[in-house]
Task: structure prediction
Amino acid sequence: MLQASRGTVKAGTNFNAGADAEVLHKAMKGLGTDEDAILQLLTARSNAQRQGIKDTYKTLFGKDLIDDLKGELGGKFESLIVALMTPPIAYDVTCLRNAIKGAGTDEKVLVEILASRTPQQVKDIIAAYRQEYDDDLEEDVCGDTSGHFKRLLVILLQANRQTGIQEGNIESDAQALFKAGEQKYGTDEQSFVTILGNRSAEHLRKVFDAYMKMTGYEMEESIQRETSGNLSALLLAVVKCARSVPAYFAETLYYAMKGAGTDDDTLIRVMVSRSEVDLLDIRSHFRRLFACSLHSMIRGDTGGDYRKALLLLCGGDDA
Result:
């Protein structure tokens, strides 16, 4: 399925990997580093072009570009630039590995990536994870999670979501979700997990409408009332992604920056991973959902070269 990218980052025209490699080498040579030259160049190239620059850099200078960048840069700005230099599937794989293998489990990362990626992307992630670490992603996830949260992650890792709309099942799915939650004392989490984990996004949107008519509740309201903790967070992410992936990410970005402190890991992960996919749509949803633009919120919440690079990724200001 060929569709026009709704990303803010496009491939640079008249691309010359050798010339770009020279610019980066010069920016890091000698005393001091020209951070501005680095961020201006890398945000104006697609990921595929950055891989070309990386290969050419090694050919010309006998050094690894990412190692050099890490040696010259620091902090959040370094994390952002290294993320931009990583191929998309490899980036997801690294994020998942760190989420599982770090101290404690970062469930938020598991939720965000597995709820929002397409079945094909999930299959590619599993294959790349095995190749990179010689481990089974599903086993690693299972070893670090439990209960219905684990079951739903396993379902998402099967990457077997149905396609299309099963007209005959819309009412019965809505009924089953009603019976599993609002209608009974306690909650039958398994029904939520099976239905929300297996039906297509377009089918689920119809189910949510039928559920609303039947119960007077939005699906999200019922999930918040009937479930809690990690399971609740994952079910909500799955429902929001079925409704609109860009709206889900707009909300994710907003809450990464809202209030005291910034969740920079999430900010970097979403800005980088969606920059060539749907960041234009995320921006328009952001403007609609919240009383400000994504650009203005980033500007107010970050500083220095880190801010400059993020704003270039963001593109325009939807003031």
